[in-house]
């Protein structure tokens, strides 16, 4: 469904919410009753595209490099359908610090606020699928119980993951994100609003190439002045090695929903693992689909984090 914009007479054309999304994970209606604040930060991704990494960056910027900050506790996935809506909204209302809100929704299913700042994080779909397979394949029975049997689920339950990662990728690609949600519409919808003054695009590969530079860009976008003495701490606490060693601060409930715990949730942080597994035809199919779904400019950016 295309994104519809507000009348052009306004200083900026902000998207309107056009639909609700519900499944084993989503309840997009949570956003309808959220009271936005002027300094809210929304971290948006498809999933497994650098979400937690970006939440960590934002939290470290807001809290000045504090190693005790736990993004798992302070930065909830707003449209996840558990815990109940009223519980989640009450917890967010009680927060006194600058809030960091997480979403995996496409723009047209999100209540978009001109007051908030939106960071959209992207990653090559092949790398997303590889990371998603690790997340899905190592999920515990408790993960399936919560998602499939908590009252309010709409649609079919989420099935067990195919243990073969290449077959998992093919199923995910052919089903446009199945059994989760559409990959292409998520990327496409955020790319369409990239020129709004309160939207900033981030790419996983760019974070890997120049973490310090990307953190400074994010800080400038969020109007956060970094104190010189705190930047080395911020940079250290946003490194993959530090996050892996302190994974319980990032994983929901300390990682109880994954075999291997939080260290499974914060997995490898690498790209390109698909290169030695996918066939040339698999790669060609993905790249043709990216071009058809996104157009050449967006497809090139998604693949590398750089403009075409």
Automatic annotation (TrEMBL):
Name the Enzyme Commission number(s) assigned to this protein: 2.8.2.1
Q: Which residues form the Sulfotransferase domain?
A: 39-286
Give yes or no: UniProt keyword Transferase: yes
Recall the GO molecular function terms of this protein's record: aryl sulfotransferase activity
Q: Which segments cross the bilayer?
A: none
Task: Please provide the record's keywords in A-Z order.
Answer: Transferase
EC primary class: transferase
Assigned protein family: Belongs to the sulfotransferase 1 family.
Q: What is this protein called?
A: Aryl sulfotransferase
């Amino acid at each position: 469904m295309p994104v519809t914009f507000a009348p052009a007479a306004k200083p900026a054309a902000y998207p309107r919410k056009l639909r609700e999304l519900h499944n084993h994970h989503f309840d997009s209606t949570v956003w309808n009753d959220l009271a936005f604040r002027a300094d809210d930060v929304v971290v948006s991704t498809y999933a497994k595209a650098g979400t937690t990494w970006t939440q960590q960056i934002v939290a470290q910027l807001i809290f000045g490099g504090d190693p005790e900050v736990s993004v798992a506790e302070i930065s909830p996935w707003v449209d996840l359908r558990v815990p109940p809506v009223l519980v989640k909204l009450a917890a967010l209302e009680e927060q006194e610090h600058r809030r960091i809100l997480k979403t995996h929704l496409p723009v047209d299913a999100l209540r978009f606020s001109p007051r908030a700042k939106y960071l959209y994080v992207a990653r090559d779909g092949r790398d997303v699928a590889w990371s998603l397979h690790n997340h899905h394949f190592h999920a515990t029975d408790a993960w399936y119980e919560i998602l499939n049997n908590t009252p309010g689920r709409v649609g079919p339950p989420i099935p067990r993951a195919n243990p073969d990662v290449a077959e998992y990728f093919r199923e995910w690609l052919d089903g446009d994100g199945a059994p989760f949600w559409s990959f292409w519409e998520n990327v496409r919808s955020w790319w369409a609003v990239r020129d709004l003054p309160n939207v900033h695009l981030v790419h996983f590969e760019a974070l890997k190439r120049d973490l310090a530079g990307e953190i400074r860009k994010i800080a400038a976008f969020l109007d956060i002045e970094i104190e010189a003495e705190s930047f080395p701490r911020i940079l250290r606490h946003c490194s993959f090695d530090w996050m892996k060693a302190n994974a319980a601060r990032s994983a929901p409930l300390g990682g109880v929903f994954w075999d291997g715990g939080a260290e499974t949730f914060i997995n490898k942080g690498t790209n390109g693992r698909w290169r030695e597994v996918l066939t040339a035809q698999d790669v060609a199919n993905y790249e043709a689909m990216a071009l058809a779904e996104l157009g050449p400019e967006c497809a090139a950016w998604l693949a590398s984090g750089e403009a075409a």
